[in-house]
Amino acid sequence: MSNKTKHTPPPWIIGSRYGALQTEILAYNGGRAICTVWTHAYNPGASQFHATSPHPQGMANLLLIKAAPKLREALDWIVWEIEQGCADQDAILRVAQEAIKEAQS
Hints:
The chain is an alpha+beta fold. The chain folds into two domains: 59 residues, no CATH class; 39 residues. Strands 1-2-3 form a three-stranded antiparallel β-sheet, with helices on one face. The chain is elongated, with a radius of gyration of 18 Å.
């Protein structure tokens, strides 16, 4: 298994360049957009698009995508530890729980 990163290196931050309807995951160094997530509902019948309320699923997606580098790092470490015969299940569990927590907040 190759651990060479082919994705945009972290940290990734949450930002918005287009107003309230959509939010982007940005590469911290350079501000390049990695992806755009629609985080607010909108009223398509209105004469102009405007945000009506936060969309819970969109916000959850945003947090999960932002945490992707941390989740990948945690999984790489866990796999390596298991392959080395690590018996420290508490350490493995702690790393997994920290990565999951980041994806939820």
